[in-house]
Design goal:
With 121 residues, this protein is an alpha+beta fold. Helices cover 33% and strands 29% of the residues.
């Protein structure tokens, strides 16, 4: 009969070997994107195993489906996030209005350097 190691003993043993494992709470979805398809895993358990500074992600369970690239949700359409301070910085650097700076930041997905270059050209 094989004796199972309790989780606390297992964690101590892993730490002695330089390994650390934590779970990621509240994971809703994991997407593995390749050039030909997306592998979508809904409601999995995800653990991060860290060994000598390298992180490995372990995905357990969940509903698995595949999507063709044409079915991908356009994540670029999501509104970029930037602060009012970013808008002021772009406006100050380019001499343009706050409204023009904001439009440039939206167009450049919040990338400050690209927004400044866009307004300067």
């Amino acid at each position: 009969m094989h004796k199972r190691m309790n989780p606390r003993e297992q964690k101590r043993m892993m730490q002695r070997m330089g390994m650390n494992m934590d779970s990621v709470p509240d994971v809703q979805q994991v997407i593995i994107r390749t050039s030909s398809k997306d592998i979508v895993i809904d409601e999995p358990e995800v653990a991060i195993l860290e060994v000598q500074g390298q992180k490995m992600y372990q995905i357990i369970g969940g509903q698995v489906s595949e999507q063709a690239p044409s079915q991908r949700q356009n994540t670029a359409a999501a509104k970029p996030t930037f602060s009012e301070e970013d808008v002021r910085l772009v406006a100050d650097q380019t001499g343009k209005s706050l409204e023009k700076a904001k439009e440039a930041l939206e167009e450049c997905q919040g990338d400050l350097a690209k927004a400044i270059l866009l307004l300067q050209s």
